[in-house]
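Structural prep section.
Before we set up the soaks we want a predicted structure of the protein with uridine-5'-diphosphate in place, mainly to decide which crystallisation condition to try first. Input record follows.
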Amino acid sequence: MSLISVVIPIYNERDSLAELISRLQAALREESVELLFVDDGSTDGSAKLLQSLQHTVPGLRLVQLSRNFGHQRAITAGLDLARGDAVVVMDGDLQDPPEVVPALIAKWRDGFDVVYGVRATRRGEGVAKRSLAWAYYRLLQAASPLDLPTDAGDFRLLSRRALIEVRKLREQARYLRGITSWIGFPQASVTFDRAPRRAGTSGYPWMQSTSLALDGLLSFSPWPPRILMLSGALALLLGLVWAGIAVGQQAGLFPAPSVPSPVIAPLILCSSGAQLLGLSLLATYARRILDEALDRPLYVIASDQCPAPTLQNRSMDPGETAAAPNLSAKVALPTRSGPPSGESGTMQEQPFPRPPP
Ligand code: UDP
Ligand code: MG
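Run finished without errors. Recording the tokens verbatim:
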């Protein structure tokens, strides 16, 4: 029977966890499941609660990062460590309903490698956030040569072969929605109603949302530098026309009205603003180049608590032993040059415990 890994990044979600787990167990009753929680530096006791549940919830695995690395990197850690034949990524605040997961799995069984959830409605989110998200997804789709689905977040399923390819993309500015589209393979969607957050507050303040949106645009669209070039060309053209008019006036060729002086100051401000914007775009690209050159690991694992029966499994490095107390030191994580070395399939797979009915 195939194993389904469910990767759930967690940042201060203690009050949602019990319901999330019981609804996942109910929804995936028929499946063999690994529930891989990645604790992204929670400070509300989420990790402690998950540890206490490990004895009663079959297949619950807790990976703790050494600090808060952010949503995209927490998901990346989960994808790197997941052992399933298919991997589902979902949020831990119950905005992605567990009851939709079987529909993702059904599409995977129909032969699709990437199955993403498309949000038909977004309950519990303000008008400003919904409108901006609506506009952003459409802008990105229009600006990217890739077929980036609109209204789809990170709630999605990846087949094993899609997962292996996603692991190879180690860019620092991570926009996983783009990465999973970039890899290609047959892709399908499942429409669902996004629920309101179950408890707590969003870990995505405006700054982080904007930064993620920028990462999407800068990584998956060639248009930002092109727009810079086009605006430069337009400004040059306007300047030349203006210069022509001024010269014509001076030579007395035609009596054109002079530019009223109140317009001059705003024009100068606009042009220096546009130049600063262009400069900041260049600085952003330079910063991204520096980040890539530094080549820091995408996250640091503080601990990885696997349920015992699955320790000998194929995502582990062949040199790894089941007795390793802390996998962070030994597990073979993907590098720039490729995915984890345990992908060769030489390790024997162990049966995964089924959740109780
Ligand atoms: N999250 C995370 N690290 C962070 C912020 C969020 O792992 O730094 C998790 C969070 O616990 C949730 C998911 O990422 O499971 C989505 O975050 P959130 O619900 O805050 O984002 P929103 O739905 O408001 O966009
Ligand atoms: Mg949320």
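Observations: The pocket of uridine-5'-diphosphate (ligand 1) is lined by residues 9-11, 13, 40, 68, 70-71, 74, 91-93, 95, 197, 202-204 (CB under 6 Å).
Flagged for discussion at group meeting.
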